[in-house]
TrEMBL record:
Residues 51-127 form the Thioesterase domain. This is Thioesterase domain-containing protein. It comes from Aequorivita sublithincola (strain DSM 14238 / LMG 21431 / ACAM 643 / 9-3). Belongs to the thioesterase PaaI family. Pfam families: 4HBT (PF03061).
Amino acid sequence: MKYTKDEILAGCNKMCQNTLMETLKIEFTDVGDDFIVARMPVTSRVHQPDGVLHGGASVALAESVGSAGAFVFLNSEEIIIRGLEIAANHVKSVRDGYVYAHASIIHKGRTTQLWQIKITNEEGALVSLVKLTTLTLPIKN
């Protein structure tokens, strides 16, 4: 990483302004040499009609943190990241509190990357396990 942890987190959180991530109140909270973490509050804003976390909100959280990780760990401001494929298994319901998405890279290719994102509740129990494939494209001038 060519920036400090605080600079990376501030940059990721700034990129969320006026996006779906801001709407879902996603906040990046931690980053290391091979992982990035974000959290999202579980409120009625992200519930299914029966009052539990909507799987689509979990997938949006996972793709947000995985894509941010690809941008951070590829160390280039000359690229754009796009999600190619995402698959999620939801294994536990959450009604309130926060969920945390911990993204770690499995494959770091020049053009494609494979991410594993574990979404957990506040107690650390697995809520969803997500696999995300990202594509790196050069910025066209």
